[in-house]
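Cross-check.
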Amino acid sequence: MLIPVPPISEQEEIVEFVDSKISLAGQEIDNIVATLRDEIKLLNQYKDQMAADIITGRTDLKRIAYTVNEGQGIPDDYQDDEVQEQED
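Predicted model, tokenized:
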């Protein structure tokens, strides 16, 4: 039984082609991973800042809860007497 085999020069061209495609794919994957790591780092910084703002009172939790639960934003007639009293 004979198995057809391309000449060595053609085999080398095939190897070079496949290597170049794998190298490009590897670079793209590396770029995606780096971007995702940067995004995770930024989200963690945002989370830490939000926690600090909530602890120090710079962020009104009632406004956040209302916005998240209702999804419509803060109504014009919203008043938070407790926060206003503490600020006075």
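The helical segments are 8-56, 61-70, 81-87. Residues 8-56 form the longest helix (49 residues). Passed to J.P. for a second look.
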